[in-house]
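Quick one: structure tokens for this chain, please?
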Amino acid sequence: MNPQEHPFANPNIRILIGLSGALVLVFIAFFVVEDTLLRWLIVAIAAVDAVATPYILKLTVENAETGEESVAQ
């Protein structure tokens, strides 16, 4: 598949994937978890997920365009 045709090439898709995962975590934190400290820890993880997931997906698309096999050196 051409990297430009991949769904992750669209930044809106990447952001929506990150936000959907974060939304699920926040829902679980407030409607399932009863412990206050654990609830806020899950919300913090959701915030990191909302930022990190689009960034990681962006790196994936960039690596697919350049043809690199791994990021670590």
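The CA atoms of residues 61 and 67 lie 10 Å apart.
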